[in-house]
Amino acid sequence: MEIDKSKIKKAVKLFLEAIGEDENRQGLIHTPQRVADMCDELFAGVTKKADKELEVIFTKEHDEIILIRDITFYSLCEHHLLPFFGKAHLAYIPSGKRITGLSKLARTVDLISKKLQIQENLTTEIADLVMKKLKPKGVMVVVEAEHLCMSMRGVKKPGSQTITSAVRGVFRSNEKTRAETLALIKF
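The structure assignment produced for this chain is given below.
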């Protein structure tokens, strides 16, 4: 499925009209096209499959925690169409010889974040996809984000952070492994 840029341009023109703007004002003349072009990037997660990112698997024995922390992401709240952004921390313990490249994990977070959603679903989807594709002993995903729907409008609390986590496998069943990983994330 492709993004329909002509519909986006029409919608932006209607939106500008609805808020009392002049779509022909110098600063707005090309705005509908710019917004349509931007949507290709911001909503890439709708049209592309993140599971393709985890297809490269190295056959190297490793049975300790692999953690990438502070993976910057940007997403959009499905309730208000406003951004939320922050850091994702992704840890897994390989099973057998199933390791993927570090950049593959970061790209997975990036692609899954590029669609309308809530943070809880983003966190869960990352954990579930890594479990499905890599079949590790366990996965832990912690996401910290600021939501502009809370910062700019409504309660207007800029800087507030929402933290969500998803734990699977050994991270759920083994408290020491879970505690070690959380300590590494906070390190």
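Interim note for the steering committee: The longest strand covers residues 66-77. The first helix runs from residue 5 to 18.
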